From TrEMBL:
Name listed for the protein in its UniProt record: Diguanylate cyclase
Domain CBS: 7-66, 71-127
GO biological process: regulation of DNA-templated transcription
The Sigma-54 factor interaction domain, residue ranges: 374-604
Length: 676
């Protein structure tokens, strides 16, 4: 609101030089006590007031006389665009009852009297109170105002509803709220309503005192709070159920983001549960194909799927609300797929066994392994495999060396299957397993009648069998000296005589030999022929023991876990940290074979689906403890030796000895105390 909105407009003014008669006419016509007087340029010059009029008449002024001498020049002027707030204070301070409102050209366009001011104030108050009422009504707050005697002087509709009264004004507030004090906040139950009352007192100008009371209905809030509590309780219950779920469960929202996931599912897929939360299910568990139910809108069951050798099935269940899929649940059963699964497993196990024996049968006298089956993460091993792969292509004799269980046979088979002889037989002879007296006939066969007794028919030897292919001589260090001589001749001349035979037999055989014995020592001891040693040692492959390939331990654990889950039907998903630490610090004298046996045993015993320390064999745990203890002892021996030396060097001076050792004097004293 600006001044122009509340002033009394004027349509005519006096001009300097106007007469008393015209002034009287204007005052009478417009019923005003003050008439603005303007210059010829229409600018305000002064005012002709009722006092001016009486002064002129008393001085004998005539109707034709000029008003100029009686024009009051000291005029309060107000700009028409002045805001209401400023006008209010200007008027309050002004000594004159009427101000002249001028426009931007200084032309008077209206009068502003105290009456105008009062009616403007009245308008303003009316609009303020209307606004306040609207605010109170839309806030849903009940509002009551009392005077200092607690008599209600104002109440809104909401307050009347709360207190169930058609009218409250004039009633005593103590009837409803017996104790009211400033700052009070109280819960009140009344007429079936439950609300909170807040009271504050007011003390206005003119000594008006009293209280303002606000009432807020809390029944709705309470209802919401109790619903929230129930929901929270249910969520807690669901979380607990998830924690202890035996099956794998995952729940996603409409967008496919994971809201809940059970630990067994994370274990199965080796996923960190915290990292999986809120992520998109296709990112974390793409195998489950969970989002397919958003299209199909009905529950689905997958076929048997497999991970880490563990079979599982997925039940995909859509969560439907108002005919719309608002989420989905994936239930992954893998630990006890129920009786059907057990039967399935048994059947599958038997099928595996049949497959295995079929394979064995098929591969009898032929290679069973290939390079891909040599599992390793170790750089030296990888290099060795590369060298062996190259060597396999040639014709040279290969000697494979390494401790028992390191994979010598695996290498020999892989060499054969990647050589040009792969379609021909691979014949294995374990030199340590054949009785001494039979070794020769095993290798070279014998003619009919070579032995006394008519039952003896001729026999084909291993060299004959391996013709065109590879002869794998395992445990070559155990071959007798006499056989070594014959073997050397075959290797050099590529021909031999059968036992009891007289004709030469020509053969094309590639020799791959293996041993875990130190052949050089056997040569030195005269137990192995030096010439044969050199003949065999054309290409030598030294397989490092497992303890020198720490990275392979973990990799092979994963490998055996997967294959045994499939072969023996277990559902082991991981090796717990304590067991892993033990397995990594063990020295594995039996190498990969031992690791494979330990895994098979541990997986059979693992109850929680994860291998724990307790599932490892007792002998292994004991050996690790003993070696830890021995290491500690050796460390202590070294330490004591160093202390003794330092003390000798410093002639018993402990400060100097500590300095030599690079430790503080107090820690030297501590150590001396420990060793004493
Ligand atoms: N790197 C490897 N990856 C996968 N399996 C392996 C590996 N090395 C060895 N194995 C497995 O360990 C077991 C022992 O291997 P293999 O028989 O080849 O050892 P070896 O050195 O010939 O033993 P031995 O000297 O006692 O005859 C086998 O079951 C083999 O498949």
């Amino acid at each position: 609101m600006i001044l122009r909105d509340i002033m009394t407009p004027i349509s005519e003014t006096l001009i300097t030089g106007d007469t008393l008669g015209r002034a009287v006419i204007l005052m009478k016509q417009f019923k005003i006590n003050v008439v603005p007087v303007v210059t010829k340029q229409d600018e305000l010059y002064g005012v002709f007031t009722r006092t001016s009029l009486s002064d002129m008449i008393i001085s004998g002024g005539q109707s034709n006389d000029s008003i100029d001498p009686y024009v009051v020049r000291d005029v309060v002027t107000l700009n028409d665009t002045t805001p209401y707030r400023e006008v209010e204070s200007l008027v309050k301070q002004s000594h004159v009852g009427t101000g002249i409102v001028i426009d931007q050209h200084l032309k008077p366009i209206g009068l502003f009297t105290k009456t105008d001011m009062i009616s403007a104030l009245f308008e303003q108050t009316k609009s303020l109170s209307h606004m306040l009422e609207q605010i109170l009504d839309s806030s849903h707050l009940g509002a009551i105002m009392t005077d200092e005697h607690s008599t209600i002087i104002y109440s809104n509709e909401q307050a009347k509803q709360f207190l169930n009264k058609e009218e409250l004004d004039g009633l005593c507030s103590l009837e409803f709220f017996p104790e009211v004090e400033n700052g009070m906040v109280k819960q009140v139950q009344m007429e079936g309503n439950h609300f909170i009352v807040r009271a504050s007192n007011f003390d206005r100008e003119l000594n008006e005192k009293g209280y303002i009371l606000f009432m807020q209905d809390v029944s709705e809030v309470e209802e919401m709070a109790s619903e929230l509590k129930t929901v929270q309780g249910l969520k807690g219950l669901l979380d607990k159920a998830m924690e202890h779920a035996y099956d794998g469960i995952v729940m996603v929202n409409k967008k496919g983001n994971i809201q809940m996931v059970s630990p067994p599912l994370c274990e199965l897929f080796s996923i960190d549960r915290n990292k999986a939360m809120r992520k998109h299910v296709n990112e974390v568990f793409p195998q489950l194909n969970l989002l397919s139910v958003f299209q199909s809108q009905h529950a689905e069951v997958s076929d048997f799927l497999e991970i880490k050798g563990i079979k599982y099935i997925v039940n995909r269940i859509p969560i439907v609300q108002d005919n719309e899929v608002i989420g989905a649940i994936g239930k992954v059963t893998y630990r006890q797929i129920d009786d059907v699964k057990k039967v399935f497993k048994k059947l599958e196990l038997m099928e595996n066994q049949v497959d295995y024996y079929k394979e064995q049968l098929k591969q009898k006298d032929s290679s069973r392994f290939r390079w891909e089956q040599i599992i390793t993460r170790d750089e030296n091993m990888k290099k060795l495999v590369r060298t062996a792969t190259k060597a396999a292509k040639g014709l040279s004799t290969i000697l494979i060396r390494g401790e028992s269980g390191t994979g010598k046979e695996l290498f020999a088979h892989s060499i054969h299957s990647s050589s040009g002889r792969q379609l021909k037989p691979l014949v294995t002879v374990n030199c340590a397993a054949i009785p001494e007296q039979l070794l020769e006939s095993e290798f070279f066969g014998y003619e009919d009648g070579a032995f006394t007794g008519a039952a003896h028919k001729g026999k084909i030897g291993k060299f004959d069998l391996a013709n065109g292919g590879t002869l794998f001589l395992d445990e070559i260090g155990d071959m007798s000296l006499s056989l070594q001589a014959k073997m050397l001749r075959v290797l050099q001349e590529k021909e031999f005589y059968r036992v009891g035979g007289t004709s030469r037999v020509n053969v094309d055989v590639r020799i791959v030999a293996a041993t875990n014995q130190p052949l050089e020592d056997l040569v030195a001891e005269g137990k192995f022929r030096e010439d044969l040693y050199y003949r065999l040692n054309v290409i030598s492959l030294q397989i490092p023991p497992l303890r020198d390939r720490p990275n392979d331990i973990e990799r092979l654990i994963e490998h055996f876990m997967e294959s045994f889950n499939s072969i023996i039907g277990t559902s082991v998903t991981a090796v717990k940290n304590d067991a892993l630490t033990y397995m990594k610090s063990y020295h594995w004298p039996g190498n990969v074979r031992e690791l494979s046996n330990v895994m098979e045993r541990a997986m059979t015993f693992a109850e929680s689906g994860q291998i724990q320390k307790e599932d490892l064999p007792e002998y292994m745990l004991r050996s690790i403890e003993e070696s830890r203890y021995a290491q500690k002892e050796t460390r202590m021996d070294y330490e004591w030796e160093a202390i003794e030396k330092a003390l000798a060097k410093s002639s018993g001076n402990k400060s100097k000895a500590a300095e030599i050792l690079g430790i503080s004097r107090s820690s030297l004293y501590e150590k001396l105390k420990k060793y004493s």
